[in-house]
């Protein structure tokens, strides 16, 4: 039973790591609904540190400027190990667009959401004849033998949104441990710019998801480095509370710690239902929240000034195209350093900068055109 629970937590971690595509909203009336002391992105940027000011601006570059030197490799089949959550499924569209742009075949392998189905999906990849395999954050512990088998055959395996570094079978990993630390540092810097030396914060995470620990560490380090008198506590919650009693847990914690005025809550799903619980508990909107990524529900919270004020967005569509960029260079035996550098676009999204409430959107509006130009197919 314990082994099965751990396996399911690993799958839950993969769903968390992939996250929901960023959907959001904007309004001309945010200031009227904003919590006390809130600022618009433009005002915050003008008064923020240079690093925070840059993060508040929507990025315009994909982070790669080295063009492909050789021709596009032909007749390639890419396997995409796709979990069955909407978050995973949404990543298929940009990956399909990228592979079609270079004339490759994409085979989507449904990995489901259980340890058994994940392993079975990777087994399909081993039994097949892929030129490369792309995964999306599942712990390698679920498919270690299959990963080794692919590596032994020289098949490049690419991963993303994971705690696992790019080694021992992974040819490349996008948005892993160090990137999550950096995201936490950006959120911490944002909180310091907004709260000054009055920051009394708490990180609400779960030990089941290693990536959240990286974010929490960066968040805490940034605040403590910039404000030795500020406080940052850590509150661990069970993974099983997500989607269940977590909002009540957070409200109860804040009732017991009335001096807390900033909260980093692990990722956007953990924010769902929190404002209603806080309001019922009489928690002031002077307590402000930051998180990772956004859902339409949480974007509405942000628009309405309903506790949530900022989210560190993830460049998921851009990552799917960067996978193909890596493979193009790999197949040509060109340097893959441009593809693996920690240069993914970043964006700390606030209420007045949210592009849409109905559509997912990339961080870089013309990211497809930029990649096509690098590949000589614009």
TrEMBL record:
Periplasmic binding protein domain boundaries: 95-308
Record bears the keyword Signal: yes
UniProt keyword annotation of Signal present: yes
Composition-biased stretches (Low complexity): 34-53
Signal peptide per UniProt: 1-24
UniProt KW keywords: Signal, Sugar transport, Transport
Primary localisation category: other
Region of interest called Disordered, as start-end residue ranges on this chain: 29-56
Taxonomy, superkingdom: Bacteria
Subcellular location: Cell envelope
A GO cellular component annotation in the UniProt record: cell envelope
One Gene Ontology term of the molecular function aspect: carbohydrate binding
Entry's family note: Belongs to the bacterial solute-binding protein 2 family.
Protein name: ABC-type sugar transport system periplasmic component-like protein
């Amino acid at each position: 039973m314990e082994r099965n629970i751990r396996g399911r937590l690993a799958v839950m971690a993969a769903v968390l790591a992939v996250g929901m595509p960023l959907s959001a909203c904007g309004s001309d009336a945010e200031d009227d609904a904003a919590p006390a002391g809130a600022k618009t992105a433009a005002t915050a940027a003008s008064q923020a540190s240079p690093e925070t000011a840059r993060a508040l601006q929507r990025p315009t570059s994909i982070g790669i400027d080295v063009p492909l030197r050789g021709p596009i490799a032909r007749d390639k089949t890419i396997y995409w190990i796709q979990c069955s959550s909407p978050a995973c499924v949404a990543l298929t569209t940009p990956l399909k667009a990228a592979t079609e742009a270079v004339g490759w075949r994409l085979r989507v392998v449904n990995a489901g959401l259980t340890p058994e189905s994940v392993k079975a999906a990777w087994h399909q990849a081993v039994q097949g004849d892929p030129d490369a395999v792309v995964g999306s954050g599942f712990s390698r512990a679920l498919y270690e033998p299959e990963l080794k088998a692919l590596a032994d055959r020289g098949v490049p395996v690419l991963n993303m949104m994971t705690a696992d570094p790019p080694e021992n079978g992974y040819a490349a990993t996008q948005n892993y441990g160090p990137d999550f630390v950096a995201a936490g540092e950006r959120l911490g810097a944002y909180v310091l710019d907004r709260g000054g030396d009055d920051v009394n914060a708490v990180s609400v995470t779960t030990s089941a998801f290693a990536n959240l620990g990286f974010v929490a560490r960066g968040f805490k380090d940034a605040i403590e480095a910039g404000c030795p008198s500020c406080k940052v506590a850590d509150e661990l919650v069970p993974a099983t509370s997500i989607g269940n009693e977590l909002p009540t847990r957070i409200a109860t914690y804040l009732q017991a710690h009335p001096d807390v005025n900033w909260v980093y809550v692990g990722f956007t799903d953990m924010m769902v239902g929190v404002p209603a619980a806080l309001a019922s508990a009489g928690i002031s909107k002077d307590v402000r929240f930051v998180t990772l990524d956004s859902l339409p529900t949480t974007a509405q919270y942000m628009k309405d000034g309903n506790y949530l004020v900022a989210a560190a967005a993830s460049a998921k569509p851009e990552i799917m195209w960067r996978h193909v960029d890596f493979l193009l260079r790999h197949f040509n035996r060109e340097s893959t350093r441009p593809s693996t550098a920690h240069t993914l676009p970043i964006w700390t999204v606030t209420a007045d900068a949210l592009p849409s409430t109905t559509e997912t959107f990339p961080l870089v509006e013309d990211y497809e055109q930029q990649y096509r130009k690098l590949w000589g197919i614009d």
